[in-house]
Design a protein that fits this description.
mainly alpha; Citrate Synthase, domain 1; Cytochrome p450-Terp, domain 2; 2 domains; binds coenzyme A
């Protein structure tokens, strides 16, 4: 039998200029820039431009992109109607988002294959509107009226303003923006691959986004930041009850979890055998955020819990090279920004839609059908026997 690359692990399926992941050395570059260099300083608009065009924008180009995004944030009336219906049924945010993105076609201009400028407009539309969909839906779920987008605010600031109902302080916006740039792209993740497969058939941008969102919402992909934060809170509570130092309680908790066969959320990665470089960027962002206010001890406690968990993991699973991944500090940053855990994965999508659209543009330019092969392992039959004949 032919050999099968289970889960396509190790198969290089496309060449890309969008991001580079070196799992052995813990390196991630976005459009050629190290993540730790670009994420704390660039705006989301600059990062999207970089992924779409392969270079950073000039100031006038950044302003123009801001303007184009800001004027496309409004949702078609049919999309808002759908979000109301989804809220009545209390559908999960990721399901409402996927369904709503499909309805953006209600006022999308039809794009012919090879029409690069119309495809880019479609990319701008979807990047501009995903935050509006999430914020509108979350407010409807909470029984509150949606907040209209504010064209004066940049992408990250506007998303927060639509969620909160008022503009957020600059340091909160910067922390969210650092997160949005950090996770905007990550090689050929499952959702990115799904987007590329869809558009490789010469399908369209919106279909690719719906495919990507479908792949993204699965628990093996969209992430574990909610549970990672819960874990820190649970260990803190146990330490408060037992009176044990936090590190000791965290070691005990980890040993029990491992003995019960549990996975520790926020640790381990399929690609990285060293510390996920995104964890470092987000840890620094969390430190800056918590220095200025909020739950002052949470950051220090999370550091203590992280160190204790790694100590036990390294001891119990020697040679496995399990390190902290992006989700551990995502949880801390997004919590510090004031988002509920239910918003962590949708906010990840608000960022990643930038990467998906860039990959779609790249795949369209590549114009190669992505169509792997399979090996048949079922039974073989020489003749068809009708059911009535077989019963005689
Ligand atoms: C991300 C993940 C699925 C990658 O796993 P993978 O590369 O497929 O590695 P495997 O699942 O084959 O695990 C290899 C070994 O490490 C252990 N391991 C890996 N991650 C672990 C974790 N977070 N907690 C406990 N053990 C872990 C496995 O139990 C296994 O040990 P064993 O061989 O003794 O049974 C895995 O690390 C995990 O489940 N992490 C927790 C969830 C998480 O944080 N996800 C977000 C990723 S960004």
């Amino acid at each position: 039998m032919e050999s099968i690359a289970r889960g396509l692990a190790g198969v290089v399926a496309v060449a890309t200029r969008i991001s580079h992941v070196d799992g052995a050395h813990g390196v991630l570059t976005l459009g050629g820039y190290p993540v730790e260099e670009i994420a704390p300083r660039a705006t989301y608009e600059e990062a999207v431009f970089l992924l779409w065009h392969g270079r950073l924008p000039r100031p006038d180009e950044a302003d123009e992109l801001h303007h184009r995004l800001a004027t496309r944030r409004w949702l078609p009336a049919g999309t808002v109607t759908l979000l109301h219906a989804a809220a009545v049924r209390r559908l999960p945010i990721m399901d409402a988002l996927r369904m709503a993105v499909d309805t953006l076609q209600l006022d999308d201009v039809p794009v012919g294959h090879g029409d690069a400028s119309a495809t880019l407009s479609s990319a701008i539309d979807v990047v501009a509107r995903v935050p509006t969909i999430v914020a509108t839906y979350v407010r409807l779920l909470a029984g509150r009226p949606p907040v209209a987008p504010d064209a004066r605010l940049r992408h990250a600031a506007n998303y927060l303003a639509m969620l909160r109902g008022e503009p957020a302080p600059a340091e909160i916006v910067r922390a969210l923006e650092t997160y949005l740039v950090t996770v905007i792209d990550h090689g050929l993740s499952a959702s990115t691959f799904a987007a590329r497969v869809v558009v490789s058939t010469r399908s369209d941008m919106l279909s690719a986004m719906v495919g990507a969102l479908g792949a993204f919402k699965g628990p093996l992909h969209g992430g574990a930041p909610g549970p990672a934060l819960e874990m820190v809170f649970r260990i803190r509570e146990r330490a408060a009850r037992s009176g044990c130092p936090l590190a000791e309680e965290a070691r005990r908790w980890t040993a029990e979890a491992l003995a019960g066969g549990e996975r520790l959320m926020g640790f381990g990665h399929r690609v990285y055998s060293v510390r996920d470089p995104r964890a470092e960027v987000l840890a620094a962002a969390a430190a800056r955020l918590f220095e200025r206010g909020g739950d002052a001890t949470l950051h220090a406690d999370a550091r203590t819990v992280e160190a204790a968990i790694l100590e036990v993991l390294h001891h119990r699973k020697p040679g496995r090279r399990i390190e902290t991944n992006v989700e551990f500090y995502t949880a801390l940053v997004l919590h510090g920004v004031g988002l509920e855990p239910g918003l962590f994965t949708p906010t990840f999508a608000v960022s990643r839609v930038g990467g998906w659209t860039a990959h779609v543009l790249e795949q369209i330019a590549e114009d190669t059908l992505l169509r792997p092969s399979s090996t048949y392992v079922g039974e073989m039959h020489d003749h068809y026997i009708p059911a009535e004949a077989a019963a005689v």
